[in-house]
């Protein structure tokens, strides 16, 4: 066993209000530069919808992530090494700028310098930030904001469940899905990079780009099924979410977490066995969720604690793993789910799915909103269809998605009874197989947890900081890039001189 620590995140979708504060603060911190105008390391999508870039979840089109070949072996969907190499100068599986959106700016002088007494309203002309030409704004990273299904018919998640979801006005539903890089345990971006520029840090599993090694081949963009690697069109190099590692090393949460208005993000570390990653990513689709859950190691198991000590992990990290809210939500309460486990990258940002107002729905259906059976039956009639959530979070397994919703519904009903008259709804507890203490602890974490309960981040020790620096300087490969391991890439192109600013827009193609 090779025990590793991974910084991971859980987002509680019930609490996202779609304010985009996370996106804006992330942009101000990381992508407020030339060449990254169209880049949002953190974006918030409205679901159903096609997202950013358009239709990124359609892997038949984009060939992102992994699949099992005819022998049951894990293979990048974009093809083997030779196939990827043959496309190195003409990769057909890349989103164009129109799939993201053409970033615009405005001539604000028209407003500032409008002559006094003007009777008409001055109108700002948008200009392309890529070409400087006047343009019409026809799409954006957040174009579908709160539309609730207007573009939903093109949502790949709806194709499989279209017979269950009716876009009738009175049945329309929507929720927000904030997204960042998943810092996957089995990152397709790392494995696809021919230059060895993408890597996964050994210390905490954060996936980064070594800008000096990046040659701009953009294989990472194609390979990432979440489309969370971007090309800086000024430098021609790949850029991505860094999980705010300088903040984490100082014991602070990521900027998107720190500024989240809904306080819905949780950060913590989890242990995993690096030797078990390949097997967990290679099981049949119906077993993927369980395999991904069981990739995490129990931080309370003395044998795991000793293994962590033997591997040189500091006591502070061993203790932090036990307090990790991520471990609690994923493995203890089992209410957090991975986004698209079927991509087989083993994502490390998990989600508590949104629960429609279940007590209202029970009342509307003439059911008793304090009765366990009635509450659980109502799950099937919720406004956000279980089938849709299953397509997002459980590779289509409605039983698992419905089970999570039942826990959340039972928690609400149980806490309401406790608060109103002090009664204990034992029937509800029995229905979800949890104790009253567990439900109250889960409620506390989801509803009223304080800052230091939501973010449990051990600061990197001084000696780790030196090691991190040395690793960044000497980085040659992903830490998973061992014989037969998920990296599986021993091909590297020869070093080339670093390119300066390109006189072209590499997103559109070389001119
Ligand atoms: S989500 Fe992040 S770590 Fe995972 S494949 Fe995409 S860029 Fe790589
Ligand atoms: S800041 Fe929080 S509540 Fe606002 S959009 Fe982002 S994740 Fe949602």
From TrEMBL:
The keyword Repeat applies. The keyword S-adenosyl-L-methionine does not apply. GO terms for biological process: anaerobic respiration; nitrate metabolic process. Pfam families: Fer4_11, Nitr_red_bet_C. Its cofactor is [3Fe-4S] cluster; [4Fe-4S] cluster. Keywords: 4Fe-4S, Electron transport, Iron, Iron-sulfur, Metal-binding, Repeat, Transport. PANTHER family: NITRATE REDUCTASE BETA SUBUNIT (PTHR43518), RESPIRATORY NITRATE REDUCTASE 1 BETA CHAIN (PTHR43518:SF1). This is Putative nitrate reductase beta subunit. It comes from Actinoplanes missouriensis (strain ATCC 14538 / DSM 43046 / CBS 188.64 / JCM 3121 / NBRC 102363 / NCIMB 12654 / NRRL B-3342 / UNCC 431).
């Amino acid at each position: 066993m090779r025990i590793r620590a991974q910084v991971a995140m859980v987002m509680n979708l019930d609490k996202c209000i779609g304010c985009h504060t996370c996106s804006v603060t992330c942009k101000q911190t990381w992508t407020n530069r030339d060449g990254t105008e169209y880049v949002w390391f953190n974006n918030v999508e409205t679901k159903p919808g096609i997202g950013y870039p358009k239709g990124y979840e359609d892997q038949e089109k984009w060939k992102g992530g992994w699949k099992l070949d005819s022998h049951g072996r894990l293979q990048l969907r974009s093809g083997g090494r030779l196939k990827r190499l043959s496309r190195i100068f003409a990769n057909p599986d890349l989103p164009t700028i129109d799939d993201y959106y053409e970033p615009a700016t405005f001539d604000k002088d028209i407003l500032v310098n409008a002559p006094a007494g003007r009777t008409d309203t001055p109108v700002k002309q948008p200009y392309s930030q890529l070409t400087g030409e006047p343009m019409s704004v026809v799409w954006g990273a957040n174009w579908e904001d709160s539309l609730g299904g207007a573009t939903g018919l093109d949502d790949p998640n709806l194709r499989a469940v279209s017979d269950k979801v009716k876009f009738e006005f009175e049945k329309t539903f929507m929720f927000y899905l904030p997204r960042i890089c998943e810092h996957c345990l089995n990152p397709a971006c790392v494995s696809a990079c021919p230059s060895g520029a993408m890597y996964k840090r050994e210390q905490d599993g954060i996936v980064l780009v070594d800008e000096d090694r990046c040659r701009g081949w953009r294989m990472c963009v194609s390979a990432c099924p979440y489309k969370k690697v971007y090309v800086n069109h000024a430098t021609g190099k790949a850029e991505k979410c860094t999980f705010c590692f300088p903040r984490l090393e100082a014991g602070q949460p990521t900027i998107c977490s720190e500024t989240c208005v809904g306080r819905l993000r949780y950060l913590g570390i989890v242990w995993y066995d690096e030797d078990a990653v390949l097997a967990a990513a290679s099981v049949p689709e119906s077993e993927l969720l369980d395999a991904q859950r069981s990739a995490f190691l129990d931080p309370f198991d003395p044998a795991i604690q000793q293994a962590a000590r033997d591997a040189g992990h500091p006591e502070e990290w061993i203790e932090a793993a036990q307090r990790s809210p991520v471990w609690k939500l994923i493995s203890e309460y089992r209410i957090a789910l991975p986004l698209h486990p079927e991509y087989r990258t083993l994502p490390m940002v998990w989600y508590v799915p949104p629960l429609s107002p279940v007590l209202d729905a029970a009342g509307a259906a003439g059911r008793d909103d304090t009765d366990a059976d009635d509450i659980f039956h109502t799950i099937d009639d919720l406004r956000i269809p279980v089938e849709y959530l299953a397509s997002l979070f459980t590779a289509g397994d409605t039983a698992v998605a419905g089970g999570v919703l039942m826990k959340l519904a039972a928690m609400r009903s149980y806490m309401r009874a406790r608060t109103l008259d002090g009664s204990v709804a034992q029937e509800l507890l029995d229905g979800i197989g949890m104790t009253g203490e567990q439900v109250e602890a889960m409620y506390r974490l989801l509803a009223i947890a304080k800052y230091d309960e939501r973010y449990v981040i051990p600061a990197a020790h001084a000696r780790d900081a030196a090691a991190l620096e040395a690793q960044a300087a000497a980085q040659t490969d992903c830490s998973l890039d061992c014989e037969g391991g998920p990296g599986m890439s021993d091909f590297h192109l020869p070093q080339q001189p670093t390119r300066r600013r390109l006189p072209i827009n590499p997103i559109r193609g070389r001119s």
